[in-house]
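Pilot study result, target chain (211 residues):
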Amino acid sequence: MFSNKKILILAPHTDDGELGCGGFISKAVRQGATVFYAAFSTADESVPSSFPKNQLEIEVKNATTIIGVHPANLFVYKHAVRKLNYVRQEILEEMIDLRERIQPDVVLLPSRNDIHQDHSTVTSEGIRAFKNCSILGYELIWNNLSFATDYFCVLSEEDIKKKINALAAYKTQEGKSYMSSDFIRSMAVVRGTQINTSFAEAFEVIRWIDK
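Predicted structure:
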């Protein structure tokens, strides 16, 4: 399914892409896709004082490499955390630039029911910028009041391990419940159980174009 496809992950913050679709990324790369990853905020203001302010930029480079994204395919923007809605036109223009440079087949972004202000901004501008692409909404359950499980991506043990290892690169985020390996594996088991397989990630289908 993913062979020779160009897939773009839109992450409001570093780590959102790995959390929402890390298994999908691993599988897509394994099947021959080229995956691009764009993070719109490194949340420098939220980095613990024991780390350098650019630590999340360092961590996203390590994490995306672990999960199979080539370093040249990582785009990191420096917008202020929790203020993406203040610069939505600038973000839209950055997305349009990505669209013209990459011409992706599939775009992944947060669900339309994600209530985080930065996430909803990336989703609304992403749908606007990539309206002629297939678009999937990924799941971040701590921000979702509801979630439509329209599409399931079956994952292997290898995919789960890569997702867990990628998230372990975020030393600044240690201790958060949704970053734990137990949580990541349990979510994959729940979604897998829904379709009678071992592991899966679920997605909202926002638009699907069968080319």
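One observation from the pilot: The first helix runs from residue 16 to 30. A full batch analysis is planned for the follow-on phase.
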